[in-house]
Amino acid sequence: MSDTATLAPALPGTAGATATPRFHVVGEHHVENGTLLGFWLYLMSDCLIFACLFAVHGVLGRSYAGGPSGAELFDLKLVAINTSLLLLSSITYGFAMIEMQRRRQGATLLWLAITGLFGAGFIGLELYEFAHLIHEGAVPQRSAFLSSFFTLVGTHGLHVSFGVVWLVTLMVQVGRHGLVAENRRRLMCLSMFWHFLDVVWIGVFTFVYLMGVLP
């Protein structure tokens, strides 16, 4: 970015008047780290959404309306496997960021692909869980507990699905253009998003599943 000064021409009838200097900015003005700051603001707004959903489940989590409870429905072994997949995906994404800092494009893409597979596995198991619950008649309309459960867990799963799509898109961009500054910034934003989803899921696993099986 550089500044250049230009002299404005004298107006008619003002011969001999001194021209007024005008300064113009050449090139695009982009605030340093502005993208990361904006993305942090987005994550804070997402925190408010999940906070509301957790609050709703806290109020309605015991409203079974004569239907099944979490202790009767939840398969903690399956949920534990799903949790492991998401936590492992956070670790592999960290490896991808390390390779990105080393400017090793191939290794970065490899770890991103592994992260995407873990994320896809998480979504697959969650869809299996939902399908099983619906097959058992535990649909969202059955009780307030199930409505809040499907809303909270489904919203998180939707975020992970968008994250996987975003990850695949970035892999294509890195494959075409390499680890340029723009792609590194995008990978950094996705990193914050992915780790944020891991933190939220720990809350879901503890607050919804573990507390849900308590008598």
What does the model show?
This protein is mostly helical and 215 residues long. It has a domain at 71-211: Up-down Bundle (Four Helix Bundle (Hemerythrin (Met), subunit A)). It is built from six helices and two strands. It has helices at 34-60, 70-73, 76-101, 105-135, 144-177, 181-210; strands at 2-7, 21-26. Strands 1-2 form a two-stranded antiparallel sheet. Helix 1 (34-60) packs parallel to helix 6, helix 3 runs antiparallel to helix 6 (181-210) and helix 4 (105-135) packs antiparallel against helix 5. The chain is elongated and about 75 Å long. The relative contact order is 0.14.
Task: List its salient traits.
215 residues; mainly alpha; Four Helix Bundle (Hemerythrin (Met), subunit A); two-stranded antiparallel ribbon; 71% helix; transport; transmembrane helix
Layout of secondary structure:
Elements: E1 2-7, E2 21-26, H1 34-60, H2 70-73, H3 76-101, H4 105-135, H5 144-177, H6 181-210
Antiparallel strand pairs: 1-2
Helix pairs in contact: 1-5, 1-6, 3-4, 3-6, 4-5, 5-6
Summarize the structure.
This protein has a domain at 71-211: Cytochrome c oxidase, subunit III, four-helix bundle (Four Helix Bundle (Hemerythrin (Met), subunit A)), CATH 1.20.120.
Top CATH class of one domain: Mainly Alpha
Mean pLDDT across the residues is 89
Give the name of the CATH architecture of one domain.
Up-down Bundle
Query: Outline, from the CA principal axes?
Result: elongated
Strand content: 5-15%
Q: Give start-end ranges of low-pLDDT stretches.
A: 1-8
Q: The CATH topology of one domain, please?
A: Four Helix Bundle (Hemerythrin (Met), subunit A)
Main sheet specs: 2 strands, antiparallel
Structural class by sheet pairing and helices: mainly alpha
Q: State Rg.
A: 25 Å
User: Treating each run of at least 4 consecutive H or I residues as one helix, how many helices?
Assistant: 6
How do the strands line up in the largest sheet? Answer: 1-2
Let me know the number of strands.
Answer: 2
Share of residues in helices: over 70%
The first-to-last residue Cα distance is 64 Å
